[in-house]
Amino acid sequence: MHPLLSKNSGEKMLLLGNEAIVRGAIEAGAAVAAAYPGTPSSEIANNLFFISLQGDWPLYFEFSTNEKVAMEVAASAAAAGVRSLTCMKHVGMNVASDVLMTLAYVGVKAGMVIVTADDPSMHSSQNEQDNRIYAKFANLPMLEPTSPQEAKEMTIEAFELSEALELPVIVRTTTRTSHVRGPVELGPLPETVKQKGAFQKDPRRWVPVPAVARMRHKVLLDQMEKAKEFVEGSRFNTKTGQGKLGIVASGVSACYVEDAISELGVADKVTFLKLGFPYPFPRKLLEGFLADVDKVLVVEELEPFLEDELKIICKETGRDIPVLGKASGHFSRMYEFDPLMVKKAIAEVLGVEVPMTEAPDLSSLPPLPMRPPSLCQGCPHRETYNAVKEALKELGQEENAIYPTDIGCYTLGLLPPIQMADYLLCMGSSVGSSSGFSIATDHKIVSFIGDSTFFHSGLSSLASAYHNEHKFCLVVLDNSTTAMTGHQPNPGIEIRPAGYDRPRIPIEDAVRGLGIKNVYKVNPYKKKEAVDVFKEVLAKDELSVVIAEAPCILYYRKVGGKK
Predict the structure, then answer these.
(1) pLDDT-derived band of residue 1, with 50, 70 and 90 as boundaries?
(2) At what angle do helices 429-440 and 459-467 cross, to 10 degrees?
(3) Chain segment 474-505, per-residue pLDDT in tens
(4) Which of 70, 91, 309, 461 fits 432 for a cystine, CB–CB 3.0-4.6 Å?
């Protein structure tokens, strides 16, 4: 049995924040979950996948082709009265936002939780957007845990709140809260889980044509007024201390603030407001907090989400006090914070010294060498890149080629000695950008996309490229898994984990189904054959697709292949 299914209520387990969210969903009776993998959210989906695969708990889970599909699956289940969850990394919310904005209007019947995992400092991402703004944009409640224990509790609370308001509820984490490990006290598992509901037809709610949408927008705003009552009394918003410096923080920043207050010995000088339920903004709580302090320091990573709201409240209530944070230069809108950074900012505002510990003498040690990420030794993508490069060289086109790339392990083709990644925007952008380059330049265009990314958002772009007669070579790097995020399945995989028996969609069939005639398959480890195919394809001036098939080395070993 999966360890997260332990029935020992009251037991403490050492869990990642992501694992705690899974346990919370199980305790809350979620029966449907869908996701597309993306770090730092991946462990949520991975654990739900294996729980469903093992069959020890009544849970349906799927790795959908993209985040939009995953949110649609979860939303319709909740509309039919079955509790559901979807999770994604921050940029995944962009893909799902078309669903999100209208889902807020039509709402849900059973509880639905949307987990968005932000990535300050871009440890595994192409931007560091702040998805708290999506809560305000879509007009949906949002909770933000600071620890694994809170992650579990907030997930349960989010399901309850979702049902009370008939709205999906967002739980927002960041890399540090997703991947921190801490003690989590387990609660009881439900005796029964509602797996089947009944959809009650009501076109004036569920079909948002303009007349219905106008009505449902008012309903959404009314429900968010009710949400304000929940946020004002939420146990996740806590105030401590009676000092004249007010500090407001949420998420992992709140942990740094608590440590700094203790280490600086300034508890008597500070009133600390930790917001675990930051949206809708707890207006009454914030007004009372501002009335008791002489200045405020806002500690929040990324955008000045809370800082701007506090300034608005000060202006509207006539409370003329400094609100410090990003605009004052105490913190940056970029990158992660760390405990020392927060400690220094608090010390500066209070005019106290930061106690410094003596650093060890490391002068005798040589500097550590740089260790940038790289493709694994033996990775089939290396051989595909080498075959393309050799074919272009023999054709005299190597200096003329543009290499649009995509999101996956193979993005590391950017680095020496390969250096075959020239342009990247988002999932699936290799195909669309190749179309643009084919219009605007006379370069030879060779683009790269992975098998999972192809199903995520490459198909529609490729249909457009074929219909509009764009001319480039698309190389599909098919390693039979979603490798970068932890070897999750996708619709095209041939090598499968035990018990996974869903039908396969061969990429070649999908491409030919679009009407594309120039479709080739190569084994990148058979170098001469691969080079010959690429030479034939690249000599043409038309849309071609080459599928480079060879399994991810690590995945192949994991599922029982030869070493």
Answers:
(1) confident
(2) 20
(3) 999 999 888 888 889 888 888 888 788 899 99
(4) 461
Tell me the C-alpha distance between 528 and 526, whole Å: 6
Question: What letter does residue 331 receive in the DSSP assignment?
Answer: S
Per-chain mean pLDDT for the chain: 94
Confidence label for 382 from pLDDT (cuts 50, 70 and 90): very high
559, pLDDT greater than 90: no
Please determine, for residue 319, whether its predicted confidence score (pLDDT) is greater than 60. Answer: yes
Question: Could you check whether the bond before residue 280 is cis, i.e. omega within 30 degrees of 0?
Answer: yes
pLDDT band of residue 349 (cuts 50, 70, 90) is very high
From residue 3, alpha-carbon distances to 20, 48, 83, 201, 378 in Å are: 12, 12, 22, 39, 34
Task: Set out the domains of the chain in order of their start, with CATH numbers.
Answer: 3-232 (3.40.50.970), 237-350 (3.40.50.920), 380-558 (3.40.50.970)
- H or E element, residue 23: helix 17-27
Residue 365 buriedness (CB in 10 A; 0-12 / 13-18 / 19+): exposed
Task: Summarize the chain as % helix, strand, coil (round to 5).
Answer: 45, 15, 40
Identify which of 387, 422, 416 has the alpha carbon closest to the alpha carbon of residue 404: 422
- CA-closest candidate to residue 488, choices 474, 502, 468: 502
- Cβ 114 vs Cβ 169: under 8 Å: yes
* CA pair distance 424, 93, nearest whole angstrom: 18
